[in-house]
Amino acid sequence: MKLLAPSPGWTIKSDVIIVGSGIAGLTTALQVRANGLSVLLVTKARVDAGSTKWAQGGIAAALGPGDSPAEHEEDTIVAGAGLCDVEAVRILVSEGPGAVERLIARGAVFDRSISGEIALTREGGHHRNRILHAGGDATGAEISRALLAAVTQDEGIELIENALVLDALVDDDGRVCGVTLHVIGQGSRDGVGRALGRAVILGTGGLGQVFAQTTNPPVSTGDGVALALRAGAGIADVEFIQFHPTVMWLGNNASGQQPLISEAVRGEGAVLVNDAGVRFMQGAHELADLAPRDVVAKVIMREMIKNGSDHVWLDVSEVSNFPERFPTIYQSCLDHNIDPTKDLIPVAPAAHYASGGVRVNLFGHSSISGLYACGETACTGVHGANRLASNSLLEGLVFAARIADDLKVNLPAQGEPVENNSKSILLDPAIRTDIANAMSKGAGVIRTRESLEEVLATLDQLAKRTSDQPCVEAWEVTNLHCLANVLVRSALIREETRGSHWREDFPKLLDSWQQRILQEMDIAGNYLHNLEKVINE
Question: What gap in Å lies between CA 185 and CA 363, rounded to an integer?
Answer without folding.
Answer: 34
